[in-house]
Amino acid sequence: MLARTASVDVCCNMAAQDMLGLVAATFTPMTKEGEINLSVIGSYVDYLIHTQGVKRIFVNGTTGEGISLSVQERKLLAEEWIKQGKGKMDEVIVHVGSSSLREAQELARHAATIQADAICTVSPSFLKPSSVGALVAYLNEVASATPEVPFYYYHIPSLTGLNFRVEDILDEMKKCGVNNCLLNPNFRGVKFTGLDLLDFGQCVHRYGQELSFFYGVDEQLLSALVLRANGAVGSTYNYLGKAVGAMLSDFQKGDLHSAQNKQFLIQEFISYLFHQGLGLADFKRIMSLVSNIDMGLPRLPLQINETANLASALDKMKALGLYVTPHSKTSSTP
Ligand SMILES: CC(=O)N[C@@H]([C@@H](O)[C@H](O)[C@H](O)CO)[C@@H](O)CC(=O)C(=O)O
């Protein structure tokens, strides 16, 4: 069991906010030579805001290939996103997860220095924590590096291979905290990219008053909204932000039938991508096509599906009424 943070005598875990909306997990633009391309981030920010209506971003996450980037690259990217988003974006969350605790702490401190709105971390997934207690000890070390910055745990079992139930993780944090608070006063919630809606629902049921829960499986967001998700973080909000925003708005107005119909169309599109053999690496190319901003190729070990027909994906998006023409404020690059 962890040492308690004894100096905290009142509970500091803030009340969760009702609805925080959509957060685009940004792609990392790269040059033809495979280096990070900071020069298009300004246009990217404008595209998200003016074309997709998305004003929250999650940078250097899974979609952004954060784990495949060097610490220096991640810092440069985070700085540029914050610089370009200043006065425009409502929130910039920086993913700081790494296999190295020291690197995660360094990235967390850097995020604090550049005034990121929040940080988030996955668990290391090569040398994995062997118990919920070990994971909580790790999260505590990262969160404590920047006690003033809101902190989220990033649950993504399909990639980390870590199948601890999030409810158990939160229970452990409660057990290790003082005054019935969760261990870290800056702990704000979970980015839940998992299919287990029983776990998700129980997390909201038991901790929804004090924490926020973002759902991360875009194709079934509506089910998580029904279970009172506070928002969503995902790759598809880069190019489906407007469509998903409309679904969210129907849901908030209580028009479940219309929200369901929108979710069905979004599912049809994502399902079409999967059937074409398209995955994360190719989503980056879809973003280039849809936004007219050159995202470049993913970095190895990710590889694109050379045989996939991207033009047909764009046609499908248009046929389903999900495509939005880039706003004129989005300056395109060759
Ligand atoms: C496994 C994965 O990449 N999941 C995506 C989803 O947005 C996913 O691309 C989408 O649901 C389509 O399957 C996000 O949860 C990832 C994410 O938010 C991130 O980039 O950190």
Automatic annotation (TrEMBL):
Catalytic residues of the enzyme: Y154, K191
Catalysis performed (reactions): aceneuramate = aldehydo-N-acetyl-D-mannosamine + pyruvate
GO MF: N-acetylneuraminate lyase activity
Pathway: Amino-sugar metabolism; N-acetylneuraminate degradation
Source superkingdom: Eukaryota
SMART domains referenced in this protein's UniProt entry, alphabetically: DHDPS
Claim: Lyase is one of the keywords in the record: yes
One GO term describing the cellular component: cytoplasm
Binding site for pyruvate: T63, V233
Transferase among keywords: no
Localisation: Cytoplasm
Entry's EC annotation: 4.1.3.3
Record's keyword terms, sorted: Carbohydrate metabolism, Cytoplasm, Lyase, Schiff base
Known partners and oligomeric status: Homotetramer.
Entry's family note: Belongs to the DapA family. NanA subfamily.
This protein's name: N-acetylneuraminate lyase
Organism: Pleurodeles waltl
